[in-house]
Amino acid sequence: MAAFESLSSRLQNVFSKLRGKGKVTEDDVNEAMREVRLALLEADVNFKVVKDFIAKVKEQAIGLDVSKSFTPGMVVIDIVNKELTELMGGTQSKLAKANKPPTVIMMAGLQGAGKTTTTGKLAKLLQKGNHKPLLIACDIYRPAAIKQLQVLGEQIKAPVFSLGDKTSPVEIARAGLQHAKENGNDYVIIDTAGRLHIDEELMEELKQIHQITKPDEVLLVVDAMTGQDAVNVAKSFHEQLELTGVVLTKLDGDTRGGAALSVKAVTGCPIKFAAMGEKIDSLEPFHPERMASRILGMGDMLSLIEKAQSNIDAEKAKEMERKMRTAEFTFDDFLEQMEQVRNLGPLDQIMDMLPGMNKMKGMKDMKVDEKQIGRVEAIVRSMTKEEKQKPELLNHSRRKRIAAGSGTTVVEVNRLIKQFDDMKKMMKQFSSMIGPKGPKGGKKGLKGLLGKNMKFPF
């Protein structure tokens, strides 16, 4: 979640100061709020939004008799977490559903925000819920927009309705909607034209499509990389079209992310989805409470668990857990484990979801190298069946053969085998520490474990 990296680390610094205090005075709260305010402004959050936000937090924090509370610092953090969640819409805002299908979703946005791609991603998301979306190509101005939608449609096996670029978009929308009714599509997603800026002609066309299709949802696709501009664009579109929600794209981009925090407050429109990457299934429902938690460094275990549940085979996971406990873990299991983790998506995004990950020294700079993962896999695949099961067989000549077979060096093979041994030892230690009744040796034991030998093979 690169969009919030610097905001996240600044806020966490402010709060770690508060956490350590036995007593929090009004001055402490004011000092912390001054820093929070600066951090938000620097992250490109709208000025008025920041002002209201700080006022709300202060009112609650100072109104509370913080001194009597058990952990005053935590109380302040809790208030900030709640207010940050409210700022982004409070709770998840789901897609509307028409009483009588099809449900019509109209996509709007400026050129370059990722509207057509998002249309494909949304269709993919609907298919996961067993729906049959139809995509309608209404962007007749941008060369190749129709082709792009058709290619996306083929990729996810969703029908695309088009009448080429000579028919008026309003006509295409009308005919497409009729087509959906006749063919049992329960969702219709209309990909409309965008311009480089908002103009009357474009708005007029969108209003006409709106009139004819009476959409249940009007989603504005906004590029999170454009910062404050994104909020202004949302505002103008909302005034003209009455949006029902916003989709933020490129949230994994290296930006200040403030747009995501301002959109809801400025337009009153909830953020319904966020796209965290290029892949067709990288569109996720937007959960304000989880996003707030991630920004404050508390991790986002819920999203991680959901991701894992949809991508990881529960039976395999159980078996793996047993093998780890009994230290029967082989190189075969190791490959399988890596495969399962890769299914979850880019590793640095997964790291982002773990609480306190950016707090752990060394973890923050640990850029996960996907190429390195490929090398590790190549090494393991170059072993014989027997070698994978019994790593102790790997003498020097076998290691030389494996290096040659995997296009790596003996040094790399040795390193992997050593890391694998360390990992096995760690698992053994870990499972005896966790024990059947929960952690023994508590945090201390865990720290010692993660301290010296925590080296990832990738």
Detailed description of the structure:
By secondary structure, this protein is α/β, with parallel strands linked by helices. The protein folds into three domains: 2-87, SRP54, nucleotide-binding domain (Four Helix Bundle (Hemerythrin (Met), subunit A)); 103-303, Rossmann fold, CATH 3.40.50; 315-451, 434 Repressor (Amino-terminal Domain) (Orthogonal Bundle), CATH 1.10.260.30. The protein has 20 helices and eight strands. It has helices at residues 5-19, 26-42, 47-63, 72-87, 115-128, 145-156, 169-182, 200-213, 228-241, 258-267, 288-295, 301-311, 314-325, 331-343, 347-353, 370-381, 385-389, 396-406, 410-434, 442-451, and strands at residues 103-108, 133-137, 160-161, 187-191, 217-223, 245-249, 271-275, 283-285. It has an eight-stranded mixed sheet, with helices on both faces. A hairpin with a 7-residue loop joins β7 and β8 (283-285). α3 runs antiparallel to α4, α4 (72-87) crosses α11 and α16 (370-381) crosses α18. The protein is flat, with a radius of gyration of 26 Å.
Report the total helices.
Answer: 20
Rounded radius of gyration (Å) = 26 Å
Beginning-to-end CA distance, first to last residue: 20 Å
- How much of the sequence lies in strands comes to 5-15%
Q: What is the string of helix and strand elements?
A: HHHHEHEHEHEHEHEHEEHHHHHHHHHH
As laid out across the biggest beta sheet, the strand order is: 3-2-4-1-5-6-7-8
- The overall number of domains is 3
The CATH topology annotation of the largest domain reads as: Rossmann fold
- Class from helix and strand fractions: alpha/beta
Query: Mean pLDDT across all residues, rounded?
Result: 81
**Backbone shape:** flat
Tell me the CATH architecture of the largest domain. 3-Layer(aba) Sandwich
Which segments are poorly predicted (pLDDT under 50) over 5 or more consecutive residues? 434-458
Percentage of residues assigned to helices: 55-70%
CATH class of the largest domain: Alpha Beta
